Amino acid sequence: MGDDVELIARMVCEVRKTGREIDTAFALHTTVGDGRITLYHLYEDSCAVAEACFGDCPSRSG
Predict the structure, then answer these.
(1) Do residues 29 and 36 touch, judged by C-beta distance below 8 A?
(2) Cys-Cys crosslink for 52: which of 3, 20, 27, 45, Cβ 3.0 to 4.6 Å?
(3) What tens digit of pLDDT does each residue of 11-53 get?
(4) Residue pair 18/52 in contact by the 8 Å Cβ criterion
(5) Cα–Cα dist 53/29, whole Å
(6) Burial of residue 7, with CB atoms counted within 10 A of its CB: 0-12 exposed, 13-18 middle, 19 or more buried
(7) Measured between alpha carbons, how far is residue 16 from residues 22, 52, 55 in Å?
(8) Number of C-beta neighbours around residue 49 at 10 A
């Protein structure tokens, strides 16, 4: 096994390509063993990211 690290944070940034802003919370869970990341889970609002990058989110447009 390894050491678990959890991070809950907020990301605010601008997508250069579109000029749109992302403002969303996210959670990150990693496990580290022998000095290496052995597990990496990122939980985010992927629709917010898609909207900022591409202007829409297919799962919200239905």
Answers:
(1) no
(2) 20
(3) 999 999 899 999 999 999 999 999 899 999 999 988 888 888 8
(4) yes
(5) 24
(6) exposed
(7) 11, 10, 13
(8) 17
Q: Does residue 2 register a pLDDT over 70?
A: no
What is the amino acid identity at position 26? F
Question: CA nearest 13: which of 32, 3, 26, 4?
Answer: 26
Paired tokens of 56: 């829409």
Looking at the chain, list the stretches that DSSP marks H as alpha helix, in order from N- to C-terminal side.
46-54
Instruction: For the chain, give the longest Cα–Cα distance.
Output: 45
